[in-house]
Amino acid sequence: MNPPAVVVHGATHLGLTVAACLAHLGVRTHLTDHRDPQLIDALRRGVVPIVEPGLDELIVAGVERGMISFDHSDELTSDDIGVAWIGYDVPIDDQDRAAPEVVWSAVGEAAAMLRPGGYICVHSQVPVGSCRQMRETLPPERHVVYFMENLQVGRSIESFLDPDLIVLGTSDGGTSTPVHTILANMSTELITVPWETAELAKHALNLMLATSIVVGNEIGDIAERVGANGYAVVDIIRRDRRIGDRAPLRPGWGFSGGTLARDLRYLEAIGADRGVPTTMTETVHRLNRTRLDRLAALVAGATDRQHPAVSVLGASYKQGSDELRRSPAIDLSERLHAEGISAQIWDPVLSGKAAGRELGMVGLQASLDSASCVVLVQEGLGRRTDVLNVIRSAPGVRAIVDPWCELSAAADPRVIHLGVDQTVARG
């Protein structure tokens, strides 16, 4: 059976990635955005509004093959639609609270465009219980499938096309839907469960990831006080198959970007509404929110107060992307400014773009010109030779704060790690 045509709603990170990947899989795909039609106009001009490795190439290939088009909603008819795929990114405020109303609005618009018997695939990040509530508000003979969103910024194409797992939710766990047909040729097993089970699995997965990060941070804090290397400790315990070598268990400054925290907030709200204590969730959330204070204090202490300037490297959520939601670099810079320390931000993607310039980002060399301290906020920068060469040639830098333990403190005594006793780090 040929897969049905799909209309993806939402032309930002999630929806645009999904649309490009579906087209790559041979699905005739329309992308629309009723919230920001200018995004569709930009895509028609060949301007991709986000940065994600491999995305531009996938979109160009889809357009050339005639598998993807960019359409305003009033240009689509029910004949165009086999599945309405909801891919709006859910906004998150500075307290990690999500605003999923955009998803409900999109579901209503999609339902109005669907023929009887049509399907809505909810891929956006919504709290458990949403799909059943949505179905109750829809016209008869409209069906809802939940797709557990698990894209990872910076490797979203890979995580859609070659995922560890695919979890779908239906009203009763049934598998005879057009979404299953679309995904039938994926090499990963499709796990299909009732809506609430799939929705809660998303929250639970992010709670586990967040908990691992918080545990790694605590191990690192203890390691610093007892003459140990926290990174070596977590490397040892990740070799135990009960934990696994891919667990996000390491010392550091915590998680950011709002993705994990959004699901913690969902669980807290659900617990409060249903009278279920969420002590673990609340504790993980609270502990993580203290980590940037820890990093800011470390950077401030390493800065020469005769030359109180810091170079903050890496503003976006993940290397290779331009996602600034809940940017730790911007937050850190604001905290340093409050301490009387100047902070200049450089980002490998954003500094040369209008969005970066509007936020005061500068070039790498300019960020280092007067800096006495450098902090590598973004993972991976410590492995880039081009970046390290510029840092090492900066004459005034006396401290390099590396929260990811990517640099050798033994080779460069200016390097400071989180989670490692500095005398141990220097051999």
Give the topology.
Blueprint: E1 6-9, H1 13-24, E2 29-32, H2 37-44, H3 55-64, E3 68-70, E4 83-86, H4 101-113, E5 118-122, H5 130-137, E6 142-147, H6 156-161, E7 166-170, H7 178-182, E8 190-194, H8 195-226, H9 230-238, H10 259-274, H11 279-289, H12 291-302, E9 309-313, H13 328-338, E10 342-346, H14 354-358, H15 364-368, E11 373-376, H16 385-392, E12 399-402, E13 415-417, H17 422-425
Parallel strand pairs: 1-2, 1-4, 2-3, 4-5, 5-6, 7-8, 9-10, 9-11, 11-12, 12-13
Antiparallel strand pairs: 6-7
Helix pairs in contact: 1-3, 8-9, 8-10, 8-11, 10-11, 12-13
Describe this structure as you would to a colleague:
Helix 8 (195-226) packs across helix 11. The chain is α/β, with parallel strands linked by helices and 427 residues long. The protein has 17 helices and 13 strands. 44% of the residues are buried. The protein has an 8-stranded mixed sheet with strand order 3-2-1-4-5-6-7-8, sandwiched between helices. Strands 10-9-11-12-13 form a 5-stranded parallel sheet. The protein is globular, with a radius of gyration of 23 Å. The model has no long low-confidence stretch (mean pLDDT 92). Helix 1 (13-24) links the parallel strand 1 (6-9) and strand 2 (29-32).
